[in-house]
Design a protein that fits this description.
The chain is α+β, with helices and mostly antiparallel strands. Helix content is 22%, strand content 27%.
């Protein structure tokens, strides 16, 4: 995971499941979590990396997203927002396969129309 041990990024040792389980109040309320990561292409595979895969390579995004999907399936009353940073400008169509393979595509909210105005959400 950490390509440069002791780097500024090595404080991020918890995997996504540990991070999602980390809320001490999670058993007393419905929780909303935000998961975010920077996407970089490494050998034609999308990876979550921190700034550069040279410093921190969290995993191929399909593995990461699969862990999130498993967690969501175990916590059906919670909401997870996923933000994918696409600094490399990877075509959005490249995300379809990892989202489907991870099982998240079937869990995603898809708005009834695009764009949605503010009063469409009410």
């Amino acid at each position: 995971m950490f390509n440069v041990e002791g780097s500024l990024f090595s404080n991020q040792r918890k995997n996504v499941t540990e991070q999602l389980n980390d809320d001490p109040n999670r058993f007393t309320k419905i929780c909303e979590f935000t998961v975010q990561g920077q996407i970089h292409k490494k050998k034609k595979v999308l990876h979550f990396c921190h700034t550069s895969c040279k410093f921190l390579n969290a995993s191929p995004i399909v593995d990461y997203l699969m862990a999130v999907a498993n967690w969501i399936n175990s916590h059906p009353n919670d909401v997870v927002t996923i933000i994918l940073g696409n600094g490399d400008g990877t075509p959005v169509s490249s995300f379809k396969d990892p989202l489907q393979k991870s099982g998240l595509a079937s869990l995603a909210y898809i708005p009834p129309k695009v764009p949605m105005r503010l009063d469409d959400w009410l």
